[in-house]
Specification:
Elements (H helix, E strand, L loop, with lengths): L7 H11 L3 H11 L2 E4 L6 E7 L5 E8 L5 E11 L4 E6 L3 E3 L3 H17 L7 E3 L3 H7 L2 H8 L7
Antiparallel strand pairs: 1-2, 2-3, 3-4, 4-5, 4-6, 5-7
Helix pairs in contact: 2-3
């Protein structure tokens, strides 16, 4: 969703790029009960979001690469409001041809991999969220936001 810094032409170009991929991505989203978010912070990326079965939230990102291919990656994070800490696990992005036939098998494989991730093997533990989380939400409000993400199938 635009934050106001990018032009309408920028988003029109991204929509043209993703248009041939949209049917395959939307089918994947529906089959697996995921939430689609386009262009978060104006990035050239579609994110497929869900609640991770081991806690927290996760997403698969499909990004437009500079060479007109796709970069597919995953992120899982678990937030601890009491310590204002976010534990994060990511993978190395995988380059994929910009076609539904190439993309969907990679998404299937990556979703299975992410659903198998368990707490403890974090690639990063970030602190310092007290000034944001603590001033913006109560613990109950913060936890309620996380419950709104769908559970994957």
């Amino acid at each position: 969703m635009p934050d106001g810094g990018a032009s309408a032409e920028h988003f029109a170009e991204l929509e043209r790029f993703f248009a041939p991929l949209a049917p395959a991505i939307l089918d994947f989203v529906e089959r697996h009960n995921l939430l689609l978010e386009k262009y978060y912070h104006e990035a050239p990326m579609w994110s497929l979001e869900f609640s991770h079965p081991a806690g927290g939230q996760a997403r698969l990102d499909i990004a437009r690469n500079k060479d007109q291919r796709l970069l597919v990656s995953a992120t899982w994070w678990v937030d601890d409001y009491d310590t204002f800490t976010r534990s994060i696990r990511t993978n190395d992005a995988i380059a994929v041809a910009a076609s539904g036939q190439a993309l969907v098998p990679e998404l299937e494989k990556l979703l299975g991999e992410v659903l198998g991730w368990r707490p403890g093997a974090w690639t990063q533990v970030a602190t310092g969220y007290k000034g944001i989380w603590g001033k913006t939400w109560t613990k109950a409000e913060f936890e309620k936001m996380a419950q709104q993400w769908p559970r994957p199938k």
